[in-house]
Amino acid sequence: MFHAKLPRHVAAGVLVLTLTLGASLLGRTSALAQGKPDIAWMVGGHSGGVSSVALSPDGQTLATASFDTSVKLFNLTSGLLMHTLTGHSVAALSVAFSPDGTRVATGGYEGNVIVWDTATGLPVAVLSGHTDGVFGLDYSHDGTMIASASADGTVKTWNAANGSLIRTLVGHTDWVYAVAFSPDDTVLASASGDATIRLWRVSDGASLGTLAGHTGFVLSLAFSPSGDTLASSSTDNSTRLWRMSDGAEIGTFTGQTLYVYDVAFSPDGTRLASGAGDGTIVIRTVADGAVERTIPLPVGVLSLAYAADGGTIFAGSTEGSSMDSS
After folding, report:
1. Half-sphere exposure (CA, 13 Å, Cβ side) for 293?
2. Under a CB-based contact definition with an 8 Å cutoff, are residues 190 and 181 in contact?
3. Which fold has domain 11-317?
4. For the chain, what is the HEC assignment?
């Protein structure tokens, strides 16, 4: 069953939230002076939870993957829907842009990775090899590789140019939910339901170590822009920071409930946002872990992405109820 290892509330209806923390977006006036974010509901919303969100490198396009099986591309200047990408069955689980923004990769519950042309909305390749859902995707920063994380317990790396399989990384003992390339593309991190994070050398797939500390499924990963720190979140309701030089856990943050689904560093690396099923987004300063602000929402948060200016957070939510931003 699809929901066998996911909490019950992720199946609800959804729209995509735009939380403007500073400058205006989509013609909305910032409410920062009132101590709360602007909230704009994106048009062309999904009919199922938004499991993954990603911004194009130029900041002009938002991609959203949903349990309704579709992936949508929104123009952020107009807020209008550009393309609806259909090709996955049961659910679309993950999405990632290529560094040049010309391609977007999506992962589905059926186990395929589909690569799409962002200009036309047409598929250009299907990467087949996983035997279960693809929950996590990432492009290498040089654009040559795609990494995929699957419920079949494996991580795969693919040649982004021709779609061929480079290697399969085996070591986790449960579903793999997330993957992330380090900024210099030398390390690939993977997060699993076995409560661990594994580090792999990209050049040859060798294991570089295991980070242990979470007591539940590890659902998301994010490298700091410098690559010095790795952030993770879990069903144990914690967000953790790891020092990459020696693998030490250097921060454990609690307070959110109903699973912390996603984490995202601000572009300058000074802040960390975490979104949870309890309907909160918490923004912390990385240097000391202090909570800078907590944004309460009437819906659970499944996915997060920062805009390039650091003043806007895009959140994929579990439900599609109306919201008063005044």
Report:
1. 9
2. no
3. Methylamine Dehydrogenase; Chain H (2.130.10)
4. CHHHHCCHHHHCCCCEEEEECCCCCCCCCCCHHHCCCEEEECCCCCCCCEEEEEECCCCCEEEEEECCCEEEEEECCCCCEEEEEECCCCCEEEEEECCCCCEEEEEECCCCEEEEECCCCCEEEEECCCCCCEEEEEECCCCCEEEEEECCCEEEEEECCCCCEEEEEECCCCCEEEEEECCCCCEEEEEECCCEEEEEECCCCCEEEEEECCCCCEEEEEECCCCCEEEEEECCCCEEEEECCCCCEEEEECCCCCCEEEEEECCCCCEEEEEECCCEEEEEECCCCCEEEEEECCCCEEEEEECCCCCEEEEEECCCCCCCCC
> CA–CA separation, 131 vs 133, rounded Å?
7
Q: Is the pLDDT score of 291 beyond 80?
A: yes
Task: Tell me the CA distances in angstroms from 122 to 88, 94, 126, 144, one per residue in order.
Answer: 13, 17, 11, 20
Where exactly are the structural domains of the chain? 11-317
Residue 243 bridge partners (DSSP)? 229
CB 210 within 8 A of CB 197: yes
Mean pLDDT of the chain: 86
CB contact set of 103 (below 8 Å; sequence gap of 6+): 97, 115, 116, 117, 118, 124, 160
pLDDT band at 121 (very low <50, low <70, confident <90, very high): very high
pTM of the predicted model, to two decimals? 0.89
Calculate the alpha carbon distances from 308 to 42, 209, 314 in Å.
Answer: 19, 31, 11
